Amino acid sequence: MYENGNSLHRLVDDLLSVQKIEAGMMKLCLSEVNVVALLKETANTFRQMAVSRKIDFVLDLPDKSIPLWVDIEKVASAVRNLLSNAFKYTEAGGNITLAVMENTMDEKDYCRIVVSDTGRGIPVELQHRVFDSFVTGGAAPSFSTKVGIGLRIVKNTMDMHHGTVDLQSELGKGSSFSLNFPKGKAHFADDNCEETVYEPTTDDNASPTDEPVVPEQVNKEELSAARYKTTLLVVEDNPDIRQYIVSLFPE
């Protein structure tokens, strides 16, 4: 329930981020982070989904740490958006991989994060527009939610980090998104950024210190006194968030 609550919170944050993006109000809060640990923590929220959907979710991460100056929340949000799309459009028995590597481009050092899947893929005619705000798939409505605000936030995050995002996709074979972050922090010199110290979670499997408040059991006499029983319809395409919302309303 704790993770589902966080997912709902992050969804609202993403919706608000779109407004800030368009208004030019977004600002980075930089920290030096071990990006390998950050990706492990981000991937944890998708492990149960991988099991329930019978999808092979692979973390291709090195044993060593890779330091990187980034806005942790924004980068985690970008990776979550890419993973969410991958899970949404990959069928049971498919594969999703989250990988990270160091490389050099134009004599500059970069860190590359890659999310790849064996899902439906994206039509060629949509690939050059997937990072625009609220793009819908016209003749292919099944892709409409895949190219909405999530990928716009990803593109904006990479622009703010002076990085790039690359897409390779083929219908029926899957998609691969690559996030390329320049290493160091000299490229932020002229930006209006804040710096903070990142304090990572020491145990990926540990319970959060701030446990969610569990509502007290509803008095049965009070329930029996009710004359009518109301039916509530919850419409949400994310199964984790849907389950969390339903759990807020006891029968």
Task: Explain what you see.
- The protein has 251 residues and is of the alpha/beta class.
- It is built from 8 helices and 8 strands; from the N terminus they run αβααββαββααβββαα.
- It has helices at 2-23, 35-43, 47-53, 72-88, 124-127, 149-160, 220-224, 239-247; strands at 29-34, 56-60, 67-71, 95-105, 108-117, 164-170, 174-182, 194-195.
- Strands 2-4-5-7-6 form a 5-stranded mixed beta sheet. Strands 3-1-8 form a 3-stranded mixed beta sheet.
- Strand 4 and strand 5 (108-117) form a beta hairpin.
- 27% of the residues are buried.
Q: Could you list the spans in which at least 5 consecutive residues all have pLDDT below 50?
A: 136-147, 203-216
Provide the helix percentage.
25-40%
Give the ordered list of helices and strands: HEHHEEHEEHHEEEHH
Strand order of the largest sheet: 2-4-5-7-6
The SS-based structural class is: alpha/beta
Mean pLDDT: 80
CA-based shape: globular
Count of distinct strands: 8
* Main sheet characteristics: 5 strands, mixed
Gap from first CA to last CA: 17 Å
- Compute the number of helices: 8
Radius of gyration: 20 Å
β content, as a range? Answer: 15-25%
